Amino acid sequence: RFIHQAKPREAQAHCTMALTVKSTDDHALLNAEHELWATTFSYIKSMALKSALDLRLADAIHHHGGAATLPQIAARVTVHPSKIPCLRRLMRTLTVSGVFSVVQQQDVVVPAASVSNGTCNGGVAAEPLYALTPVSRLLVGSRNLVSIITMLLSPNFVTSFLGIGAWFEHSLPDPCLFTQAHGEALWTMADRDATFDALINDAMVSDSSFIMDIAIRECGEVFQGIGSLMDVGGGLGAAAQAISGAFPSLECTVMDLDHVVAKAPAGTDVNYVVGDMFESVPPADAVFLKVRT
Protein backbone atom coordinates (compact mmCIF):
# COMPACT_ATOMS: atom_id res chain seq x y z
CA ARG A 1 0.00 0.00 0.00
CA PHE A 2 1.32 3.38 -1.01
CA ILE A 3 1.23 6.03 1.72
CA HIS A 4 2.12 9.58 0.80
CA GLN A 5 4.19 11.35 3.41
CA ALA A 6 4.42 15.14 3.17
CA LYS A 7 7.86 16.49 2.68
CA PRO A 8 9.15 18.89 5.34
CA ARG A 9 8.69 21.93 3.09
CA GLU A 10 5.19 20.85 2.06
CA ALA A 11 4.17 20.31 5.69
CA GLN A 12 5.57 23.70 6.65
CA ALA A 13 3.55 25.35 3.87
CA HIS A 14 0.33 23.69 5.09
CA CYS A 15 1.00 24.86 8.66
CA THR A 16 1.73 28.39 7.50
CA MET A 17 -1.52 28.54 5.51
CA ALA A 18 -3.52 27.20 8.47
CA LEU A 19 -1.99 29.76 10.81
CA THR A 20 -2.70 32.54 8.31
CA VAL A 21 -6.37 31.55 8.05
CA LYS A 22 -6.62 31.32 11.83
CA SER A 23 -4.93 34.69 12.24
CA THR A 24 -7.31 36.27 9.72
CA ASP A 25 -10.34 34.83 11.52
CA ASP A 26 -9.07 36.10 14.88
CA HIS A 27 -8.41 39.52 13.42
CA ALA A 28 -11.97 39.68 12.07
CA LEU A 29 -13.35 38.59 15.44
CA LEU A 30 -11.37 41.25 17.27
CA ASN A 31 -12.55 43.89 14.80
CA ALA A 32 -16.14 42.77 15.31
CA GLU A 33 -15.73 42.92 19.07
CA HIS A 34 -14.28 46.42 18.75
CA GLU A 35 -17.30 47.57 16.74
CA LEU A 36 -19.64 45.95 19.25
CA TRP A 37 -18.01 47.72 22.19
CA ALA A 38 -17.90 51.01 20.29
CA THR A 39 -21.63 50.81 19.56
CA THR A 40 -22.42 49.75 23.12
CA PHE A 41 -20.59 52.67 24.68
CA SER A 42 -21.60 55.27 22.09
CA TYR A 43 -23.94 56.82 24.66
CA ILE A 44 -20.85 58.03 26.53
CA LYS A 45 -20.37 60.70 23.85
CA SER A 46 -23.86 62.05 24.53
CA MET A 47 -23.36 61.95 28.28
CA ALA A 48 -19.99 63.67 27.94
CA LEU A 49 -21.73 66.41 25.97
CA LYS A 50 -24.39 66.65 28.69
CA SER A 51 -21.62 67.05 31.27
CA ALA A 52 -20.09 69.82 29.16
CA LEU A 53 -23.44 71.62 29.22
CA ASP A 54 -23.93 71.09 32.95
CA LEU A 55 -20.44 72.40 33.73
CA ARG A 56 -20.58 75.13 31.05
CA LEU A 57 -17.20 74.11 29.67
CA ALA A 58 -17.74 75.91 26.36
CA ASP A 59 -18.48 79.14 28.23
CA ALA A 60 -15.27 78.72 30.22
CA ILE A 61 -13.22 78.37 27.04
CA HIS A 62 -15.11 81.21 25.37
CA HIS A 63 -14.30 83.43 28.37
CA HIS A 64 -10.61 83.01 27.56
CA GLY A 65 -11.03 84.05 23.94
CA GLY A 66 -11.87 80.64 22.51
CA ALA A 67 -8.88 78.65 23.81
CA ALA A 68 -7.94 77.70 27.37
CA THR A 69 -5.84 75.26 29.37
CA LEU A 70 -7.33 72.81 31.83
CA PRO A 71 -6.41 74.94 34.89
CA GLN A 72 -8.07 77.94 33.25
CA ILE A 73 -11.19 75.91 32.52
CA ALA A 74 -11.25 74.44 36.02
CA ALA A 75 -11.05 77.93 37.52
CA ARG A 76 -14.26 78.92 35.71
CA VAL A 77 -16.41 75.86 36.45
CA THR A 78 -17.63 74.12 39.57
CA VAL A 79 -15.30 71.13 39.89
CA HIS A 80 -13.89 69.75 43.13
CA PRO A 81 -10.06 69.91 43.12
CA SER A 82 -9.86 66.13 43.53
CA LYS A 83 -11.78 65.72 40.25
CA ILE A 84 -9.35 67.73 38.08
CA PRO A 85 -7.76 64.54 36.64
CA CYS A 86 -11.27 63.32 35.80
CA LEU A 87 -12.02 66.64 34.11
CA ARG A 88 -8.95 66.07 31.96
CA ARG A 89 -10.38 62.71 30.85
CA LEU A 90 -13.73 64.33 30.09
CA MET A 91 -12.00 66.97 27.96
CA ARG A 92 -10.13 64.21 26.15
CA THR A 93 -13.42 62.47 25.34
CA LEU A 94 -14.99 65.72 24.15
CA THR A 95 -11.93 66.41 22.00
CA VAL A 96 -12.05 62.99 20.34
CA SER A 97 -15.76 63.48 19.60
CA GLY A 98 -15.11 66.88 18.00
CA VAL A 99 -16.81 69.10 20.57
CA PHE A 100 -13.46 70.71 21.40
CA SER A 101 -10.01 70.57 19.81
CA VAL A 102 -6.41 70.78 21.03
CA VAL A 103 -4.52 73.51 19.21
CA GLN A 104 -1.16 73.35 21.00
CA GLN A 105 0.69 72.52 24.21
CA GLN A 106 1.41 75.25 26.71
CA ASP A 107 3.66 75.17 29.79
CA VAL A 108 1.71 76.26 32.85
CA VAL A 109 2.15 76.08 36.61
CA VAL A 110 -0.50 73.80 38.06
CA PRO A 111 -1.20 72.22 41.46
CA ALA A 112 0.21 68.73 41.90
CA ALA A 113 -3.31 67.28 42.10
CA SER A 114 -4.07 68.67 38.66
CA VAL A 115 -1.23 66.91 36.87
CA SER A 116 -2.16 63.43 35.68
CA ASN A 117 -0.07 63.23 32.53
CA GLY A 118 2.31 65.27 30.46
CA THR A 119 5.72 66.51 31.49
CA CYS A 120 5.82 67.81 35.02
CA ASN A 121 8.88 69.36 36.59
CA GLY A 122 8.57 71.35 39.76
CA GLY A 123 4.88 72.13 39.20
CA VAL A 124 5.31 72.99 35.52
CA ALA A 125 3.30 70.84 33.09
CA ALA A 126 2.80 70.79 29.35
CA GLU A 127 -0.94 71.46 29.25
CA PRO A 128 -3.09 71.06 26.14
CA LEU A 129 -4.73 74.27 24.96
CA TYR A 130 -8.37 73.38 24.33
CA ALA A 131 -10.22 75.39 21.69
CA LEU A 132 -13.80 75.78 20.54
CA THR A 133 -14.80 73.98 17.35
CA PRO A 134 -17.74 74.74 15.02
CA VAL A 135 -19.73 72.30 17.18
CA SER A 136 -18.99 73.93 20.55
CA ARG A 137 -19.42 77.43 19.10
CA LEU A 138 -23.10 76.50 18.86
CA LEU A 139 -23.06 76.31 22.68
CA VAL A 140 -22.02 79.94 23.28
CA GLY A 141 -23.35 83.33 22.26
CA SER A 142 -26.86 84.74 21.99
CA ARG A 143 -28.05 82.18 19.41
CA ASN A 144 -26.74 79.09 21.18
CA LEU A 145 -28.42 75.68 21.13
CA VAL A 146 -27.81 74.81 24.77
CA SER A 147 -31.49 74.74 25.72
CA ILE A 148 -32.62 72.29 23.06
CA ILE A 149 -29.63 69.97 23.56
CA THR A 150 -30.28 70.07 27.31
CA MET A 151 -33.88 69.03 26.69
CA LEU A 152 -32.95 66.20 24.33
CA LEU A 153 -30.41 64.84 26.83
CA SER A 154 -32.71 65.18 29.84
CA PRO A 155 -33.76 62.01 31.71
CA ASN A 156 -37.37 62.21 30.49
CA PHE A 157 -36.24 61.98 26.88
CA VAL A 158 -33.29 59.61 27.26
CA THR A 159 -35.18 57.01 29.30
CA SER A 160 -37.91 56.91 26.66
CA PHE A 161 -35.51 55.24 24.22
CA LEU A 162 -34.81 52.39 26.63
CA GLY A 163 -38.19 50.95 25.70
CA ILE A 164 -37.75 50.65 21.93
CA GLY A 165 -37.65 46.85 22.13
CA ALA A 166 -40.88 46.68 24.14
CA TRP A 167 -42.53 49.17 21.77
CA PHE A 168 -42.03 46.78 18.83
CA GLU A 169 -43.92 44.04 20.66
CA HIS A 170 -47.24 45.91 20.48
CA SER A 171 -49.49 46.42 17.46
CA LEU A 172 -50.28 49.81 15.96
CA PRO A 173 -51.73 52.21 16.86
CA ASP A 174 -49.47 52.27 19.86
CA PRO A 175 -48.37 54.98 22.29
CA CYS A 176 -45.17 56.76 21.35
CA LEU A 177 -41.98 55.93 23.25
CA PHE A 178 -42.42 58.89 25.60
CA THR A 179 -45.96 57.91 26.57
CA GLN A 180 -44.96 54.27 26.97
CA ALA A 181 -42.13 55.20 29.33
CA HIS A 182 -43.93 57.81 31.44
CA GLY A 183 -47.58 56.83 31.24
CA GLU A 184 -48.61 60.19 29.78
CA ALA A 185 -48.01 62.22 26.64
CA LEU A 186 -45.24 64.80 26.47
CA TRP A 187 -47.67 67.73 26.37
CA THR A 188 -49.71 66.30 29.24
CA MET A 189 -46.59 66.16 31.38
CA ALA A 190 -45.69 69.70 30.34
CA ASP A 191 -49.16 70.90 31.33
CA ARG A 192 -48.82 69.60 34.89
CA ASP A 193 -45.04 70.03 35.41
CA ALA A 194 -43.94 73.67 35.25
CA THR A 195 -40.24 72.77 35.23
CA PHE A 196 -40.62 70.38 32.32
CA ASP A 197 -42.81 72.89 30.50
CA ALA A 198 -40.12 75.57 30.85
CA LEU A 199 -37.52 73.09 29.59
CA ILE A 200 -39.56 72.48 26.42
CA ASN A 201 -40.39 76.15 25.82
CA ASP A 202 -36.77 77.22 26.23
CA ALA A 203 -35.70 74.44 23.87
CA MET A 204 -38.17 75.47 21.17
CA VAL A 205 -37.12 79.12 21.40
CA SER A 206 -33.47 78.09 21.20
CA ASP A 207 -34.01 75.95 18.11
CA SER A 208 -36.27 78.42 16.32
CA SER A 209 -34.02 81.41 17.00
CA PHE A 210 -31.12 79.54 15.44
CA ILE A 211 -32.73 77.88 12.44
CA MET A 212 -35.10 80.66 11.36
CA ASP A 213 -32.30 83.14 10.68
CA ILE A 214 -30.80 80.62 8.27
CA ALA A 215 -34.17 79.65 6.77
CA ILE A 216 -35.08 83.27 6.04
CA ARG A 217 -31.70 83.98 4.46
CA GLU A 218 -31.74 80.84 2.33
CA CYS A 219 -35.47 80.42 1.58
CA GLY A 220 -37.03 83.78 2.37
CA GLU A 221 -38.75 83.98 -1.02
CA VAL A 222 -41.39 81.47 0.13
CA PHE A 223 -42.84 84.13 2.45
CA GLN A 224 -43.15 86.80 -0.22
CA GLY A 225 -46.64 87.58 -1.46
CA ILE A 226 -48.34 86.03 1.59
CA GLY A 227 -50.76 88.19 3.55
CA SER A 228 -51.29 85.97 6.60
CA LEU A 229 -49.50 83.01 8.14
CA MET A 230 -50.60 80.56 10.84
CA ASP A 231 -47.77 78.96 12.82
CA VAL A 232 -49.31 75.78 14.23
CA GLY A 233 -47.69 74.42 17.37
CA GLY A 234 -45.53 77.53 17.35
CA GLY A 235 -44.82 77.58 21.08
CA LEU A 236 -43.84 81.01 22.37
CA GLY A 237 -43.60 82.34 18.83
CA ALA A 238 -39.85 82.58 18.22
CA ALA A 239 -40.20 81.38 14.61
CA ALA A 240 -43.18 83.63 13.89
CA GLN A 241 -41.39 86.61 15.42
CA ALA A 242 -38.40 86.01 13.15
CA ILE A 243 -40.67 85.83 10.09
CA SER A 244 -42.61 88.92 11.14
CA GLY A 245 -39.38 90.83 11.68
CA ALA A 246 -38.15 89.98 8.19
CA PHE A 247 -41.55 90.58 6.53
CA PRO A 248 -43.37 93.33 8.48
CA SER A 249 -46.39 93.31 6.17
CA LEU A 250 -47.03 89.63 6.87
CA GLU A 251 -49.61 89.05 9.61
CA CYS A 252 -48.30 86.18 11.74
CA THR A 253 -50.38 84.21 14.22
CA VAL A 254 -49.23 81.43 16.54
CA MET A 255 -51.60 78.67 17.55
CA ASP A 256 -50.78 76.36 20.44
CA LEU A 257 -52.29 74.75 23.51
CA ASP A 258 -53.72 76.98 26.22
CA HIS A 259 -50.95 76.45 28.78
CA VAL A 260 -48.38 77.44 26.14
CA VAL A 261 -50.22 80.54 24.93
CA ALA A 262 -50.65 81.63 28.55
CA LYS A 263 -46.87 82.11 28.72
CA ALA A 264 -46.54 83.90 25.38
CA PRO A 265 -44.53 87.13 25.51
CA ALA A 266 -46.32 90.46 25.24
CA GLY A 267 -45.34 93.40 23.08
CA THR A 268 -44.57 91.49 19.87
CA ASP A 269 -45.98 91.82 16.36
CA VAL A 270 -47.33 88.27 16.57
CA ASN A 271 -50.87 87.24 17.48
CA TYR A 272 -51.61 84.18 19.64
CA VAL A 273 -54.64 81.90 19.59
CA VAL A 274 -55.45 78.79 21.61
CA GLY A 275 -56.11 75.63 19.65
CA ASP A 276 -55.12 72.08 18.78
CA MET A 277 -53.76 71.60 15.25
CA PHE A 278 -54.96 67.97 15.30
CA GLU A 279 -58.55 69.20 15.60
CA SER A 280 -58.69 72.33 13.43
CA VAL A 281 -56.50 75.12 12.08
CA PRO A 282 -57.76 78.72 11.74
CA PRO A 283 -57.81 80.09 8.18
CA ALA A 284 -54.74 81.85 6.77
CA ASP A 285 -52.99 82.29 3.43
CA ALA A 286 -50.32 79.83 4.57
CA VAL A 287 -49.79 77.38 7.41
CA PHE A 288 -46.31 77.12 8.90
CA LEU A 289 -45.14 73.96 10.67
CA LYS A 290 -41.55 73.52 11.75
CA VAL A 291 -40.49 69.87 11.49
CA ARG A 292 -37.06 68.37 12.14
CA THR A 293 -36.15 65.46 9.85
TrEMBL record:
<dbReference type="InterPro" id="IPR029063">
    <property type="entry name" value="SAM-dependent_MTases_sf"/>
</dbReference>
<dbReference type="GO" id="GO:0008171">
    <property type="term" value="F:O-methyltransferase activity"/>
</dbReference>
<dbReference type="GO" id="GO:0046983">
    <property type="term" value="F:protein dimerization activity"/>
</dbReference>
<dbReference type="InterPro" id="IPR001077">
    <property type="entry name" value="COMT_C"/>
</dbReference>
<keyword id="KW-0489">Methyltransferase</keyword>
<dbReference type="Pfam" id="PF08100">
    <property type="entry name" value="Dimerisation"/>
</dbReference>
<protein>
    <recommendedName>
        <fullName>O-methyltransferase domain-containing protein</fullName>
    </recommendedName>
</protein>
<feature type="domain" description="O-methyltransferase dimerisation">
    <location>
        <begin position="37"/>
        <end position="141"/>
    </location>
</feature>
<dbReference type="InterPro" id="IPR016461">
    <property type="entry name" value="COMT-like"/>
</dbReference>
<dbReference type="GO" id="GO:0032259">
    <property type="term" value="P:methylation"/>
</dbReference>
<dbReference type="InterPro" id="IPR012967">
    <property type="entry name" value="COMT_dimerisation"/>
</dbReference>
<keyword id="KW-0808">Transferase</keyword>
<dbReference type="Pfam" id="PF00891">
    <property type="entry name" value="Methyltransf_2"/>
</dbReference>
<dbReference type="InterPro" id="IPR036388">
    <property type="entry name" value="WH-like_DNA-bd_sf"/>
</dbReference>
<keyword id="KW-0949">S-adenosyl-L-methionine</keyword>
<feature type="domain" description="O-methyltransferase C-terminal">
    <location>
        <begin position="164"/>
        <end position="290"/>
    </location>
</feature>
<dbReference type="InterPro" id="IPR036390">
    <property type="entry name" value="WH_DNA-bd_sf"/>
</dbReference>
